[in-house]
Amino acid sequence: QVQLVESGGGLVQTGGSLGLSCVVSGSGSEYYAIGWFRQAPGKGHEGVACIDSSSGRTIYGVSVRGRFNISRDNAKNTVNQQMDNLTPEDKAVYSCAATMFPTILASGLDYWGKGTRVTVSS
């Protein structure tokens, strides 16, 4: 069983930045790729970014490429996501999830956190 706890959400103005963190724990958690997914009001989950367990390979969704950066600190069991140049379209609940293979497809994922809300004012 793997547990994920997100933090760092909040309110930011358009063009601002926020950093999210996901603390990962549990048996075997170090072997999972960790991804960030978001769900805007009235919409389904959208894959944002994912990072492999050991190689550091990353995948980004088209809408965030060049603005978001995902990183992993295995010593601290933490996956961070730096989000820059935020727009109102980035407003959503952001959740991290564990998966055996890196993906930004929001289906078939093994474990999910409860999410943290990001609001971007115009």
Describe the structure.
This protein is mainly beta and 122 residues long. Helices cover 0% and strands 52% of the residues. The strands form 2 sheets. Strands 2, 4, 5, 6, 9, 10 and 11 form a 7-stranded mixed β-sheet that branches. Strands 1-3-8-7 form a 4-stranded antiparallel β-sheet, with no helix packed on it. The protein is globular. The protein starts with a strand and ends with a strand. The model has no long low-confidence stretch (mean pLDDT 96).
Outline of the structure:
With 122 residues, the chain is an all-beta fold. It has strands spanning 2-7, 10-13, 18-26, 33-39, 45-51, 58-60, 68-73, 78-83, 92-99, 111-112, 116-121.
**Mean pLDDT across every amino acid position:** 96
Report the span from N to C terminus: 40 Å
CA radius of gyration: 13 Å
As residue ranges, the low-confidence spans are none
Roughly how much helix do the residues carry, as a percent range? Answer: under 10%
